[in-house]
Specification:
12 strands; seven-stranded mixed sheet
Length: 156
């Protein structure tokens, strides 16, 4: 993903739930605070009217925690879609640098009927800071593990 100093850019977090009935997401985002500022996460359209449970950005450490999910009376969801949009500003004087915008291992995805996180894997967005050109939108993809009836919840 190409970004330019002084510009605001976005990255989308997408999910493929496989067969899991997803109820909530905890995004633990890591970023380089020497390159990125004004980092903000907002829910994507995957969850209809999500309830934000917790939000904290630590711009000194470059860590953003964002937890949200369905309302108590909401229905779990499965399928593919955008669960969050991340906006950020690239700091001046960072042209020629490269950084990762990614989900940390503490990120979780909860699903109805499953005790542990069903998050199987995620990838980050590699940001190339260029002196000129056009900003491009990046994607961070997540995938949940399908429920295996042969294993217990604790085996995930």
């Amino acid at each position: 993903m190409n970004v330019m100093p002084g510009q605001t850019s976005t990255a989308q977090v997408s999910i493929d739930t496989s067969v899991d009935n997803v109820t909530a997401i905890q995004l633990e985002l890591g970023y380089d605070p020497n390159i990125l500022s004004n980092v903000k996460i907002v829910p994507g359209p995957f969850f209809k009217s999500p309830q934000v449970i917790y939000e904290k950005n630590d711009p000194i450490k470059g860590r953003y925690t964002y937890m949200y999910g369905i309302t108590p009376s909401g229905q779990p969801l499965k399928g593919t879609g955008v669960v969050a949009t991340i906006t950020f500003t690239v700091k001046a004087g960072t042209a020629g640098k490269q950084t990762q915008l990614g989900l940390l291992p503490e990120s979780l995805v909860t699903a109805r009927g499953v005790a542990d996180s069903v998050l199987l894997k995620s990838n980050g967005a590699l940001l190339n800071v260029t002196a000129s050109g056009t900003n491009t939108t990046g994607n961070i993809n997540t995938q949940t593990a399908p429920i295996d009836p042969q294993t217990s919840n604790s085996a995930r």
